[in-house]
Design goal:
The complex is a heterodimer of chains A (217) and B (189). Chain A is mainly alpha-helical. Chain A folds into two domains: 89 residues, Rna Polymerase Sigma Factor, Chain: A; 89 residues, Arc Repressor Mutant, subunit A (Orthogonal Bundle). Chain A has nine helices and no strands. Chain B is mainly α. Chain B has a domain of 28 residues. Classes of the chains: A mainly alpha (217), B mainly alpha (189). The interface between A and B is large, with 47 and 29 residues.
């Protein structure tokens, strides 16, 4: 990485670690921060999406989270990974958005949420070893599941979506939700059990697993 | 549909579908744009507050200034002679207060010189458009007789033995102000 002494520009930051880029950004190098945005945009966006449920809202939250992170960057000391710190900021922003009255009003006007952003039947790729009828049933099951996920309790839904995003580790999810890793895993498991129970109630399956003892969770 | 494995796969797929949305393109440039103008929102807010304050000040000033009195136009008098020159009346002489009278006891009064009568205000254009039409018609077809001419009044000659009017000078005497004696009132019996 070629770096100027006055830390104004970074010509090549592809090989630099997040911490190196953070140090450069702390010195006022917005280009280095831009590289951090590029590296973490998907993880930040999906964390926001898990909380707010719509891509447009998640996009706003993502921008706000990055801007806030840049302004608070002088307080980042490197005790934790930059991504973990950034995701914690993102999650707070997303929860604020979810709780805001504006969000509630928008939801009452247009129901573009998990359950309503239903994919087209063509979204699920047809399988070669299944009949068209089975493909249709699978697509219907997907739509039903999306609606059921939207009706899950927030704590369970957040954990399930964050874990299923493929962008966050259980440790990062625990940091975001403010819960131990064990609790996060239990919430994911409980969310799945509830989904299966609801599916069974709708006639999709007969056998529903028994609930795991939640104890104090 | 029925096996647990299939249900688990369906749940995984549904979650993946929900979370597989990509962020809108150009996120990096949008974030950097916002970083380069961090105070734009505050600046706009400050400008808005300033404009609102100015508006309030103007409104208060407008309410506090009393409305100017409307000038009353004197009645229009039609006359062919030019308006007489205003008589030049000197202001009345005011005798200085005497030594026995305190200076602050004399009432101060501003004497305004008499104002010449105001010329009648003629509208620059007729109040009613029909006026002009009627006037033009009357000029075009003027069949009426000429107006009676006004002859100037010849002054009468002054008699030979007449004595001029003697105007005596106005004398203003200072006011005599008696001293006020304040005596205690005896209590009623």
């Amino acid at each position: 990485m070629a770096e100027s002494r006055d830390c104004v520009t970074v010509t090549d930051s592809s090989g630099a670690s997040d911490l190196d880029l953070v140090r450069l950004a702390q010195a006022g190098d917005t280009g280095a921060f831009g590289e951090l945005v590029e590296r973490n945009r998907r993880a930040v966006f999906r964390a926001a999406l898990a909380a707010v449920g719509s891509a447009a809202e998640a996009d706003d939250v993502t921008q706000e989270a990055f801007v806030t992170a840049y302004r608070k960057l002088s307080g980042f000391r490197g005790d934790a990974a930059f991504r973990t710190w950034l995701l914690a900021i993102t999650w707070r922003k997303a929860i604020d958005r979810r709780n805001s009255m504006t969000r509630w009003l928008r939801l009452t006007v247009s129901q573009r949420d998990f359950g309503e952003d239903t994919p087209d039947i063509m979204d699920s790729a047809p399988s070669r070893d299944r009949s068209p009828e089975e493909d249709l049933a699978a697509a219907e099951l997907q739509r039903t599941l999306r609606r059921l996920i939207a009706t899950l309790p927030k704590k369970l839904r957040d954990a399930l979506l964050l874990a299923g995003s493929g962008e966050h580790s259980y440790e990062q999810i625990g940091q975001m939700l403010g819960a131990p890793v064990g609790t996060v895993k239990w919430r994911v498991s409980e969310a799945r059990r509830l989904l299966k129970q609801k599916l069974a109630a709708l006639g999709h399956t007969e056998s529903v697993p028994r609930p795991i003892d939640a104890r104090s969770r | 549909m029925g096996s647990q494995r299939e249900i688990d796969d369906a749940i995984d797929r549904a979650v993946r579908d929900i979370m597989s949305v990509e962020p809108r393109a150009g996120l990096r440039s949008r974030v950097l744009d916002r970083l380069e103008r961090p105070a734009a929102g505050w600046f706009a807010l400050a400008r808005l507050a300033g404009a609102a304050a100015l508006l309030v000040i103007v409104a208060i000033a407008f309410l506090m200034i009393p409305p100017a009195p409307r000038p009353v136009a004197p009645p229009t008098i039609a006359s062919s002679a030019p308006a007489p020159a205003p008589p030049s009346v000197p202001p009345p002489a005011v005798a200085p207060p005497s030594a026995g009278v305190p200076a602050d006891s004399a009432p101060t009064r501003r004497v305004r010189p008499p104002q010449p009568p105001r010329a009648p205000v003629q509208p620059s254009r007729p109040l009613f458009p029909a006026q002009g039409v009627v006037a033009a018609a009357s000029v075009a077809g003027d069949s009426t007789a000429a107006l009676e001419t006004i002859e100037p009044v010849a002054p009468l000659p002054v008699a030979a033995g007449a004595s001029p009017i003697a105007i005596q000078a106005i004398q203003i005497e200072p006011l005599t102000i008696e001293r006020i004696v304040v005596a205690p009132i005896p209590p009623p019996r």
